[in-house]
Amino acid sequence: MEGFTRNTARFFLGKNVNLHLKDGSVIVNVQLAEIQKDDLNGEVFVKCVPYGNGNMLKIPLRSIAWAKLLDLNMIETRGKQGG
Question: Which residue, 28, 30, 71, 75, is most buried by CB atoms nearer than 10 A?
């Protein structure tokens, strides 16, 4: 298994995903905003924004196991039906 690479992260830029981390936790419904490399130690980070929140999260790429693409149209439609 290849894992979550910089090329994989590029595919998800601008899209809403659930990020599954290697420690077993899941960061739910975030939009991948940017891929950034730390010049000091060479580590690659993914910057993401939680849905409905303006705060940025900075997650090391090596901590991400995989990502699942979300369909926001389906989520918003289901929310309207329940109300």
Answer: 30
User: Residue 20 corresponds to which amino acid?
Assistant: H
Cβ contact 67:46 at 8 Å: no
DSSP sequence for 21-62: ETTS-EEEEEEEEEEEE-TTT--EEEEEEETT----EEEEGG
pTM of the entire structure?
0.80
Q: Which of 53, 46, 56, 55 is nearest to 20 (CA)?
A: 46
44 CB burial (10 A radius; 0-12, 13-18, 19+):
middle
What CATH number is attached to the domain comprising 60? 2.30.30.100
